Amino acid sequence: MGTWLFLGAAILILGVLLLPKAVSNPSFFLQILIYGVADGAIFALIALGYTMVYGIIELINFAHGDIFTLGAFIAIPLVGLFGFTDSTQFSLSVMLILLLVTAAVMLIDGGINVAIERLAYRPLRNAPRLAILITAVGMSFILEGAMYLWRGANNVHFPDVLPGNRLSLPGGASVGVKDLIVIGSTLVLVSLLNTFITTSKLGKAMRATAQDREASQLMGININRTIAATFFIGAALAAAGGVIFGLYFNNIRFDEGFTAGLYAFTAAVFGGIGNIQGAAFGGLFIGLVAAFSTAYFQAALTDVWIFAILILVLVFRPTGLLGMQVPEK
């Protein structure tokens, strides 16, 4: 009951703020809605990593947003190996190469995140939570510094190889093929993750470890391997989000993951941190809030809206919309 009251209040507030503007210019409203869904799809992929890691070891991995940026940075030279430029025509072969590049980036980024977990987080697993939290912040700065040295402080261009065609909608709005690719890719990845978590042996081990680590270990589950797999999968999804972000916006900065990571963290908290469906829903919601805030109000206020949502959720419903209250472990 509390979940629906909270969600209803959020929708009511947004409705009061946006309804007059939507009525006055419905085509513009629909256009921003499409952009918001596409942005939310990217936030959802990042939020999944936050929610998985927190659910299994109760760590807010602040370096996760930088893992997202690193994925895009790794993809740029890989895409360059195939000679892709802004003038490259999209085709079936280009699509297959992009899929292979994305898979390779997911593997590389996942391996880096596993190494981070092994070297920086695992030795502190039984230490006070503040120690591992500070370590996560430190890893974020290390990754940002490494990317700054690698690519500099300016925007790094990502080749624009996706089709720029747009499909007209009633009322004057349009949806781009890029938008559909972003949304469709996220739906596929979230569905695959949900199926993996609910049906595979490793997915069941992850859920068991999240519920009770000691009991899972007594039942023969390899805790270290399960946690490492969680870091790998979370980073792989963030890496896919980084590649999608690069292909969609065609520019990325070394510190892009700082803002995107905070938005995704808010999405994970809003949806119910530790809940896969909640993270996906939260990412969509935050994407819509950011898009409408930038379009109808001042872009400078977007961060204010996002963090106001984070504070309200933490105060009035700490478990998020789809999260459940669990005993302290």
- The DSSP helix count reads 12
Largest sheet: 2 strands, antiparallel
Percent in strands? under 5%
The CATH class assignment is: Mainly Alpha
The N- to C-terminal Cα distance equals 26 Å
Q: What overall geometry do the principal axes of the alpha carbons give?
A: globular
For the record, the CATH architecture stands as: Orthogonal Bundle
Number of strands: 4
Domains, number: 1
Mean pLDDT score, rounded?
86
Strand order of the largest sheet: 1-4
Question: If you compute it from the alpha carbons, what radius of gyration comes out, rounded to the nearest whole angstrom?
Answer: 20 Å
CATH topology: ABC transporter involved in vitamin B12 uptake, BtuC
Low-confidence stretches: none
Task: Give the ordered list of helices and strands.
Answer: HHHHHEEEHHHHEHHH
Structural class: mainly alpha
Task: Name the helicity range.
Answer: over 70%
Structural summary, described in words:
With 329 residues, the chain is mostly helical. The chain has a single domain (28-316), classed as ABC transporter involved in vitamin B12 uptake, BtuC, CATH 1.10.3470. Helix content is 74%, strand content 3%. A two-stranded antiparallel sheet has the order 1-4. A two-stranded antiparallel ribbon has the order 2-3.
